[in-house]
Design a protein that fits this description.
This protein is mainly α. The chain has a single domain (25-325), classed as Up-down Bundle (Rhopdopsin 7-helix transmembrane proteins). It is 71% helix and 0% strand. It contains eleven helices and no strands. The N and C termini lie far apart (68 Å). Mean pLDDT is 78; it is low at 230-240.
Length: 329
């Protein structure tokens, strides 16, 4: 009887002492985690798919700023799909082999890194829109945005081979037992990850948004003092609502992004990741994942065009021949 109970607690009972043990969570707790993660995965995939369809289908929505949001939505969409693999790990067992384990972490690293770089581009876009409005349409073009976004994804893809080089040479080398899925970064890889995908991007974002805030406040004061002047010859009208939409919405996206990813990166930065208990680790994962679900909700709250596009998509209005030319702005 004891032997059967022992084998039931193993990921691979036939391997006995070589197999990892299951987490041993109560059935009710495991079921709650299954339902929560599954629901959030479906919601994240569905909401970001709406963003992808909206910007990809409607020509009027394919502005430089929205192309950046499209890149972020693509990464968030894949985050929602990757949660399926986390659901498989609820019981503490990985059944897909060492190669798939490394492949999972590679995809996760690429999309997370690309998200961070895209957030930096969003900050730059907001900075130019607020601080250099007369030159915005000359500096920020669709072509430049597409090149920048492609560069972010390519850079993330190249960096993953630097960071994961040891794990790629011998998948599963850091596993202590069968059924475990672990990758380990060496000191150099960890330094590259922290510098290029946390310290560097966060520093750039903070500096840009401090500048944006200062300029936005000064412009708002100028418009209150001289409501009919300022840039009239260039046919540029900067309203308070425009400033709020540009700086406010993108600012919320960037702030929420940093807030959700800060705990996990700060643990790595301080070298405390090995001291984190299971509850804290689960919370940090949930927070990082929840960000991908929050972004489309932020768009729906702040952007009228997104709400209009959702209505057209849900009512199958996108199937009409002239729907691509609909004006949703």
């Amino acid at each position: 009887m004891q032997t059967q109970e022992k084998e039931a607690g193993l990921c691979f009972p036939h391997l006995q002492n070589s197999s990892c043990r299951r987490s041993g969570r109560p059935p009710a707790e495991s079921m709650l985690m299954y339902i929560t993660l599954s629901s959030m995965s479906v919601l994240t995939v569905a909401l970001n798919l709406l963003v992808i369809i909206s910007i990809s289908h409607f020509k009027r929505l394919q502005t430089p700023t929205n192309l950046l949001l499209l890149s972020l939505a693509v990464s968030d969409f894949f985050v929602g799909l990757l949660v399926v693999f986390q659901i498989l790990l609820i019981d503490g067992c990985w059944f897909l082999g060492d190669v798939m384990c490394v492949g999972y972490y590679i995809v996760d690293y690429v999309i997370t890194s690309a998200s961070v770089e895209t957030v930096v581009l969003i900050s730059v876009d907001c900075y130019v829109a607020i601080c250099e409005p007369l030159q915005y349409f000359m500096k920020v073009t669709k072509r430049r945005v597409c090149i920048s976004v492609s560069g972010c994804w390519i850079f993330s893809f190249l960096c993953v081979f630097i960071v994961m080089k040891d794990n790629l040479r011998q998948p599963g080398r850091h596993n202590s037992c069968y059924g475990e899925c672990v990758v380990v970064f060496d000191q150099f890889s960890g330094l590259v990850d922290i510098l290029f995908f946390f310290i560097g991007p966060v520093s750039v974002v903070v500096v840009l948004y401090v500048r944006v805030f200062v300029v936005a406040v000064s412009q708002a004061r100028a418009m209150r003092s001289h409501p009919l002047s300022v840039h009239g010859s260039a046919r540029v009208t900067l309203k308070k609502s425009d400033l709020k939409s540009a700086a406010g919405t993108l600012g919320v996206v960037v702030f929420v992004f940093i807030l959700c990813l800060f705990p996990s990166y700060s643990a790595s930065l301080t070298g405390q990741e090995t001291l984190i208990d299971a509850v804290s680790a689960a919370f940090m994962f949930f927070l990082a994942f929840f960000n991908s679900c929050l972004n489309p909700i932020i768009y729906a709250f702040f952007y009228p065009w997104f709400r209009k596009s959702i209505k057209l998509i849900m009512t199958l209005g996108v199937l009409k021949a002239d729907s691509r030319d609909a004006n949703l702005m």
